[in-house]
Known about the structure:
Strand content: under 5%
Oligomer: single chain
Amino acid sequence: MQDDIALRVLGPVEIPASGARTPSQPPQQRLLLGMLALRAGQPVPVAELIDAVWDDQPPRSARGSLHALVTGVRQALAPVRGSRLDRCGESYRLQVEADRVDVHRFRCLAASGRAAADRRAAVAAFDQALALWRGPALADVPGTAAVTAASSMLAEERLSVIQDRVTTLLACGMERQAAAELPGLLAEYPLAERLAGLLIVALYRLGQRDGALRVFRAIRDRLAGELGVEPGPELQALHRRILTGDPDLAGDPDLAGAQDLAPDLAGAQDLAPDLAGAQDLAAARQLAAAWRGAHGGARLVPQQLPAIPPHFAGRTAELKA
Length: 321
């Protein structure tokens, strides 16, 4: 799917069609190409491009130097069919199909995933969007203020898609997969409260209440240590629900553990291949129901509160009464 990408900015700035890595171009030329690619199809004012390249201290010859950079960008774009860089009054506009620029395809796939009615189709769209990333956006260009702002904005967009994807995994009943992926994501985004909340929910649904509480304590300590703040109200509310054993957190019983139906059916090893090949949840559940009917029920894993403490001090008078 990525073979027809003409311009890449989600990582080092590249023109795949050129047959060579774009970093061989001067750094400021790569910067200009990246800023134009971010606004493909839109006019970008010359003054804005000058600020992007030289921050607030452009040289006296900034316009002439920008013209030289534009010439270099046009030469680099020569192998890219259907692309051109036009001068529009006091602006430049990069003409190229938006879907052939990785950042715009990323945004399109993300929007498609969020709009998808089918949850598994949504996960697939999110996966395709995230696969376009090869590192931090605009990774190999000078870190001017404009570049830093654009890179930070794109990093936030990527995090949002990651979180939406994991949320959809949980909605599909794929807690085990979410719980396996989330620790690595939290290592990358250690202060992301929503990621921590998703891991807490995933662990709770897998019966790992203590692990869920440890995740809350860890994110609370990081927030206090690095930012001097407490977790937000949503994460604190989730913590209270874990402490009280809120049954609503268990998720949809028709979805929970859908990817693990075969292991949850004790002794149903012969059914596992059929379950793995089921095309949807309904088919998997139908197979599971058929096995239960033939074998007199299956092992169930109850969702329950912790056991009553064996000893409780300080109620002697009440017991005597």
